[in-house]
Amino acid sequence: MRFPEACLTRFDIESFDAYSLPGPMTDSRPFHLADAVRLIARGLAGDLDSLVTTVSMPLTLLDRHRAVPGLTRALRTRALPIPEPWQQRQTSAAVHWMRLEAARAEVSAALDEAGVRWLPFKGCDVADRYYAAPEERPTSDLDVLVLTDQFTAARAALEASGWLSLSEDPLVERYRADEGYAWPANRPGRPLLEVHFRLWGMTPATLSDSIVEDARPVPGLFELRPTPADAYLLAAIHHLLIPPPRPMIGLLDLARIAAADDSFEVSQLAQRADHFGLALPVVMATLAAHTLWPRDRLHSLAVTLGGQLRGPERFVAARAARGGLDTISTAAVVLARLLSGRPSRAGWRTIPRRVWAHPGVVASETPASWPWHRRRKHHVLQQLGLRKP
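-> C-alpha cells emitted (389 positions)
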C-alpha cells in the first residue's frame, strides 16, 4: 500500500487526539477524548444527535477548539435551546468581528492611500469568505500581508493614521529587520493588528510576495484576497505551526475552503505546495481534516501530495498517521523539511534559535528591568522547558 492510502487508512479519529490522557471529560481534567472530538466535528457539520450531545460537554474543551460560536449557530438553525454561556460567547464573537471590520476599514484607507498592495489573510480572511457568518470562526487579531519592499511605506502610513507599535525597543526592531516577519501594532478600541512583510521561518523567502502578487479582487469585497489555493496553503501551514494541542478550528478552515470554493483546484494547490516544498505540512493537516470531515477533494489532495514527500518527511507523516497529528511537534516538521533539502527562510539557523534566540526575542519576552545576563539565562532555561514563561 502506497504512503497516502496507508495514511488515510491508519490516520483515524481514534489516533487524532493521541496526546490526550485517559480520564473523565470534566472542567477539572480537560483531557479531550477522541470520541468527544468526533462529536464536536459532527455537531459543527450539523448532525443533530452529536449537536445535542455537545451541549453537555465542558466549556474548557469546546473553547480549546474554538467551537462554541459554530455550534451555537447550528443550534439556532435547528431552533434548539442555546445554553446561556454559549450565547454569551457568540455575542462576544459578533462584537469582536465588528471591531475587526472597523479596523480593517481603517487599515484599508491608510494603505490604499499610500499605494501599498496588501491583503487580509489567515482567520480574518477565511471567516469572511468560507463561513456562513464570520463570527462562527473566532479570530483574535487582524493579520494583513504586504510586499516585503513595501513594508516601510505600509508602517509609515499606518503610524500616521494612529496605529502604534507594541515595542520601540531597538533590539526588537533589529530582530524584525534581521529575522522577523511581522509588525504588531495597536490602536484604542481596536483588535491587535499584525502587518506581515514576510512569512514564517520554515517557509521559503519568496512565498509571501508570491501570495500578494497572485492575489485577486473578490466580488463584493474591497480588498485583494489570496487565491483559494493560497488560502488553503496558509491555513495548513499555520495549523502545524501551533504547538499541540492544536484547535480543531484550523482543520475546519481546510474543510470549508475545499468544500465551498468552486475555483479550488487540487492540481493548482499541489503545484504550489511542490514549488515551495511545503507538501509535508499540507498533507498532514489535510489528512487530519479528512478524518473529521471526509471530502473527496481532501482525499484527492492527500493522495497527490503524498507522492511529493521525501524520506524524512515520509517518516514524520507516517508517525502522524500512527499516533495522531498532535504527537508531531512543529520542530519535527521543520527538521524533516531541512533534512529533505526543502527551502526555508530561516534555514538551519532554526535549530540553534530554539535555544539561543535572537536578542530581540529575548528583549520582548523578559522584563526590561532585569540585567541582560539574567534575561538571557531565563530565556534559555524557558526554551529548554526548565522554567515557566
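Residues 84-113 form the longest helix (30 residues).
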